[in-house]
Structure formats: C-alpha cells, structure tokens
Amino acid sequence: MIVADFEPVSLNDFPGRIATVVFIHGCNLLCRFCYNRELVLKNFAYVDKTKEFFKFLKENGIKSVAITGGEPLFHPNIFEFLYELKGDGIETKLDTNGFSSKKLKIALDEKLLDYVAVDVKGFSDEEIKYITRCNLKFRYFADTYRLLKKYGVPFELRITVWRDFQKETLKNFFMLIDSNDKVVLQKPIVDKPLLDKRFESQLKRIDFERNVEVFMSYFPKTKVRNIL
Ligand code: SF4
After folding, report:
1. Which atom of ligand 1 is closest in space to residue 28's alpha carbon?
2. What is the required cofactor set for this protein (predicted)?
3. Cα of 163 vs its chain's centroid, Å
4. Ligand 1 in reach of 188 Cβ (< 6 A)
5. What is the DSSP secondary structure assignment for residue 137, as one 8-state letter?
6. Tally of domains within the chain
7. Structural domain containing residue 120
8. Ligand 1 center to residue 59 CA distance, Å?
C-alpha cells in the first residue's frame, strides 16, 4: 500500500520531461497551508493503486515519474518503490518537504533519484515551527540542502509564499544558498480547504506579487510558479 493516486501525464512536474505523477500517502508534517488533506490525514481511507500504477507505466512505456505526496520519504515502503521504478529503467523526480535528510541520503547513495524538489517551509526556526506545527529547525533544512549540493543531483528549492518576507530571516537563507541554485516561488492555494481552516483568511491577505519583488531584489534569478 503506497500509491494513493496517480496522474497519467504531466508537462509541469518533472523539468524537461513528460512524466506520470504519483501521489504517496502520508506525511510527517501538518502544514497550515496544506490542501492535500486526503493524503496527509490518517483518517482518510484510500484505495491502494500501486498495481494499477505499475501496470499503467508498463503498458504505456513511461520513462519518467514525479513522486509527490504527502511526504514520499515518510512512507515505510518508499525504498522498495524506488528500487522497482529504477529496476524498470525509469527516471525519478522526488518532491520532499526537506525534513527527512537521512532517508534522502540513502536514496542518493543508492542512485535512486534523478531530480529533487525541496520545500523551504520557512527561513527561521520560529517560522518553520509555526507553519509545520512540528518542532523542526532551519538547520534540518540546511542539512538537506548541503546533501543535495554534495551529491550534485539536480534540484530546486520551492517556497510557498505564506507570509510577507522579512529582511532579517531572508538573510539566513541567502547566506546558505548559492547564486546558481534554482529557487521557485509558489502562490499558495486559497480555493481549497486547508489543513488549518483559520489560516485561509490570512493567506488571502498575502500580496504575492509584492513578495516576489522583495525576494527578487535579493535573488534576481528566482522563478515563479502557480500551482494548478
Ligand atoms: S504541505 Fe506540508 S503537510 Fe502537506 S503534504 Fe506537504 S509537507 Fe505534508
């Protein structure tokens, strides 16, 4: 039981590839802005589509898969899943929240990943704790970042704009990253029920364009993506 669902074809989820997107059930965080309730909350029952997913890949000769969630690295069977994909000669892109660096290291050691997209939940311990509702630290994200740099796997850092950027906390982030890194700003989803319903009105007040301008004044190469 690992595949909650899959999207047969996507042009937007694996840079440079036409890919199948697979949604893995379960997550270790409870982000206030999360709109994937059915993947994150334990009380949502789902029909396991693992067999159907692999059958689809084989029958259609799919060679690229974007793995998302939930948090794929949180699933106990994630390595078996990745080995099976790699055994079938499939390129893999992983979306991760950046707080499972030990498992990420194993996946990189085993050459199971071809591209990684890492969320940046916040730029300080306080921001990360507030938004994820878990006792996590900025330095845990930094561990993940350094790992990706060390292994040289292509990656991007994805930032959902859930509050106005603060000059002081942005400084931590820019001191860590490299000017050649790919950084993507994402507009939060506000038209679906969020994990924290009370957060919806706060999100609607965020001036996304203004925050993009602020961010770009420090990091002009930033890309912007609207989640569909
Ligand atoms: S947004 Fe947060 S809670 Fe939702 S799937 Fe991603 S990491 Fe998990």
Report:
1. 8
2. [4Fe-4S] cluster
3. 18
4. no
5. -
6. 1
7. 3-226
8. 31
Query: Does ligand 1 come within 6 angstroms of the Cβ of 69?
Result: yes
- CB of residue 29 inside a 6 A radius of ligand 1: yes
Residue closest by Cα to atom 7 of ligand 1: 97
Of 117, 60, 111, 53, nearest in space to 87 by CA: 111
Task: Please state the pTM of the whole predicted model.
Answer: 0.96
185: Cβ–Cβ under 8 A, 6 or more apart, which residues?
159, 161, 211, 212, 215, 222, 223, 224, 225
What residue has token string 């379960």?
Answer: 26
Residue 119 CA, ligand 1 centroid: distance in Å: 9
Q: Return the CATH number at 67.
A: 3.20.20.70
pLDDT tens per residue across all 228 residues of the chain: 789 999 999 999 999 999 999 999 999 999 999 999 889 987 777 789 999 999 999 999 999 999 999 999 999 999 999 999 999 999 999 999 999 999 999 999 999 999 999 999 999 999 999 999 999 999 999 999 999 999 999 999 999 999 999 888 899 999 999 999 999 999 999 889 999 999 999 999 999 999 999 999 999 999 998 765
